[in-house]
Amino acid sequence: MENKNKLLIIDSNALLHRAFHALPPLKTKSGLNTGAIYGFLLILFRAIKDLNPKYMVACFDLPQPTFRHEKYKEYKATRAKTPDEIKEQLPEMKEVLRAFNIPVFEKPGFEADDLIATISTRAGKDKKIEVYVISGDLDILQLVSKNIKAYTMGRGIKEMIIYDKEKVKERFGITPEQMVDYKALVGDTSDNIPGVPGIGKKTAAELLNKFENLDIIYKEAEKGNEGIKPRIKELLLENKDQAFLARYLVEVKRDVDIDFDIKKSLFGKYDRKNIEELFNKFEFFTLLNRLPGAGQRIEDKKPEPQKTIQKLL
Question: For 58, left (φ over 0), alpha (ψ -120 to 50), or beta?
Fold first, then answer.
């Protein structure tokens, strides 16, 4: 089997949220919140160890509304506001990534998922590149293909799961290509996307396995296909506009205009002194020994809170 060079794409906001909620609060002696950054780096270093990527980029959401909000003002309206503790750590997180020479992508009007989709689609066309998207959000599973895989967290941040096409099928009973239409039917409460009320995961998977996609499902429902139960048919037809709106909101954009160049995404060359200064500022003394490419051990100065957190990974 041909060895492929790996590109690791970081779903940064999703990772920060997962790290923040999975770990105990952590502050420096000066009172700087650092728990989300610390957890983020634990997960990232684990991914680097597991995957050994040659290339790496990071994608972020911006606080401004996106094209999805313009289409549907209630989009994500029920989601809890991002805790201030996470917001405080965003600039520092980007500073750390840039210190590692990891390109950071963000674009007004779009979500990180759209940037991830664009980059993974471009890179995935190269048969010599294998793309891994690291995220705590399963929305990204719609991107999984022969050359694109999702590296996600199970419970907390300790259990890591790699989703290829077979793993998606095993978990949801459908293919990655059907994930958008699946979400269009069942909705997504976390993003306040309604879908078709009354149609659950099992029914959605059954419909997609029988009719392949949302367009065919509605074509057959409107024709009165007897393979669709009367009650399900009624629900589909009553909520047609809602289902297609949901599909529009769920589907990621794969053609965002961004300046991605795989050659500028090479990972591994960075100023270690710069990283050490940042880690000392954040009091991440134990992480100095886990730096990618770290040679000599550095004196362990870890404060007590990190002893507890270190056991979680």
Answer: beta
